């Protein structure tokens, strides 16, 4: 008979995140499949566990140089590698059984794609740079804050403060709710 599967959500990775090698796991009691997106000219070189994959009907993605194909691993637990020797490709893993379904992006085991800033979003006054082969956000500028004197302080912004007595004073500290900023405080004690 025909099975009925529940819907599931799946992230679709951009072409800039395609890899040359993926690891996937089949799930117990599910019909396990992968959907492969590859440059049409490279589809014949995709392998599964170091063997050429067969029985895949490749379909051209209109307006692109890519094709897609579905490959089945059957039912049950299994571990597989899907690879291409030279060309990055995309892979989605999905499966279903009666009234259940799952789906996920493939787990990249080797990336041949050029690192790209399109995969992250930086805050205001930050720009993306590639560092150690990964995109990172860096401040567009930096400033030095200073205070000098005791007990009459003069600060970087031209202000004067008189702190009399033996108290501890907070000169600067982080405030707000942005947990991605490093927490710090600078205190002075007369």
TrEMBL record:
**One Pfam family linked to the record:** IgGFc_binding
Question: Keyword ATP-binding: yes or no?
Answer: no
The domain of life is Eukaryota
Q: Which PROSITE patterns match?
A: VWFD
- Record InterPro entries: IgGFc-bd_N, Mucin_vWF_Thrombospondin_sf, VWF_type-D
Domain named VWFD is located at 143-190
Report one GO cellular component: extracellular space
Q: Which UniProt keywords apply?
A: Disulfide bond, Glycoprotein
Q: What is this protein called?
A: VWFD domain-containing protein
**Species name for this entry?**
Chelydra serpentina
């Amino acid at each position: 008979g025909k099975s009925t599967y529940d819907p599931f959500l799946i992230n679709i990775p951009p072409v800039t995140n395609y890899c040359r090698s993926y690891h996937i796991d089949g799930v117990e009691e599910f019909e396990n499949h992968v959907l492969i997106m590859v440059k049409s000219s490279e589809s014949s070189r995709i392998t599964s566990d170091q063997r050429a994959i067969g029985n895949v009907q490749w379909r051209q993605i209109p307006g692109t140089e890519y094709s897609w194909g579905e490959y089945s691993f059957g039912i049950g637990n299994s571990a597989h590698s899907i690879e291409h020797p030279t060309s990055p490709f995309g892979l989605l893993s999905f499966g279903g059984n009666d009234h259940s379904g799952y789906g996920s992006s493939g787990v990249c085991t080797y990336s041949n794609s050029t690192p790209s800033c399109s995969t992250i979003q930086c805050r205001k006054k930050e720009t993306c740079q590639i560092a150690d082969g990964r995109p990172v956000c860096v401040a567009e500028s930096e400033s030095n804050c200073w205070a000098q004197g005791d007990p009459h302080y003069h600060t970087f912004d031209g202000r004067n403060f008189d702190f009399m007595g033996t108290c501890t004073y907070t000169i600067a500290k982080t405030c707000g709710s942005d947990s991605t900023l490093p927490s710090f405080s600078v205190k002075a004690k007369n």
